[in-house]
Amino acid sequence: MKRISLAVIGLRFGARHVQNIVSKGFDAELAAISDINPDYAALGKEHGVPFYTDYKEMLRTTKIDAVIIAVPPHVHAEVGMACMEYGVHVLMEKPIASTLEDADKLIESAARCGVHLEIGHMYRFDKGIEMTKLKLENGEIGQMIGFHIFSTYLKGPGYFKQEWRTKRNTGGGPLLTNGIHDIDRLRYVCGDVETVSALMSNKERGFEVEDTVSISVKCKNGVVGTIFLSDCSHRALPYTDFYFGTKSSVMINSSSYYIDDPLHEIEQVSWDYGVNRRIERHEMKREDNHMKELRHFCQVIQGQASPRTTGEDGKKTLQALLAIQEAMLTERVVTI
Ligand SMILES: NC(=O)c1ccc[n+]([C@@H]2O[C@H](COP(=O)([O-])OP(=O)(O)OC[C@H]3O[C@@H](n4cnc5c(N)ncnc54)[C@H](O)[C@@H]3O)[C@@H](O)[C@H]2O)c1
């Protein structure tokens, strides 16, 4: 099997991808890295690979099979399309782009250039999500009814030193930065989003972008649910997602999985008081979802797997997110 030659563009968060590649956990090697900030030259020296401040020069002068792009969202399309023109496969960090027009450009460009475009929605590789999908597919959860997702973080002032994080037109705000993961998970588990409403607050920091938002969602298949998202709140509870089904419900956090399954058929009782039930708990070894995603991306390039998050998927997740953003800004119900 041919060893995949990888480059990384954008090295702040992208440094984590660099670390995963050089850890040699899969069939790939680091060929080059790029960032407009020359300080990252030291990272190139550390790993013995060429460093470029101009990623186009990297594309012209280095033979690479695939690239991981971790630049700010408003430049995803420009950088992604340039890589595709060189026949380079792209793992684009989430969100696919900051506008649907840019998402379309990336999708069209990947098809025209005959390269893979995978979007970095790495929670699709989370063990709890993988188990939930499996249990849905084999009927253990029954019909999906609804969900509730807690998504709370506490970010300090250092995080907002990059100005793009405080402004909406450059892709800032926890909805686009973090909520996109929650929206992608709910789409992956529950189905495509149809109608949304949302209320936001920015009272803590006073930036243009929200710091807290409460969201209601209805999916095309009738599943309904809510998301509470904040990047100025301590984590209140050690779990993130609940998914409620007709046969059982699951609670997931990044290291455990919990399924509550009444042992009787609902027809046998007028109301299930939860007395006779099976509770299954799995403590799972914490895995690096980014590493799993990268390993999978290499398998896609080698023809051994299909993309788990295609460009179209990334666009649908962005579309749901933009509908929530519109609902949040207008305080109106929005249907996609
Ligand atoms: N999947 C995840 O868990 C996760 C986590 C964090 C960030 N991200 C995503 O990664 C991307 C980067 O996020 P970040 O937090 O590192 O942003 P950042 O603004 O902190 O860093 C972006 C880096 O890209 C560089 N850059 C900007 N324009 C460039 C260009 N044209 N060519 C080369 N380099 C360029 C900057 O100098 C900077 O080093 C975003 O899309 C973000 O949503 C994903």
UniProtKB/TrEMBL annotation:
It comes from the Bacteria. Residues 136-235 form the GFO/IDH/MocA-like oxidoreductase domain. It holds the Pfam family GFO_IDH_MocA. Residues 5-121 form the Gfo/Idh/MocA-like oxidoreductase N-terminal domain. One of its GO terms (molecular function) is nucleotide binding. PANTHER family: BILIVERDIN REDUCTASE A, BLR3664 PROTEIN. This is Gfo/Idh/MocA family oxidoreductase. It comes from Paenibacillus hemerocallicola.
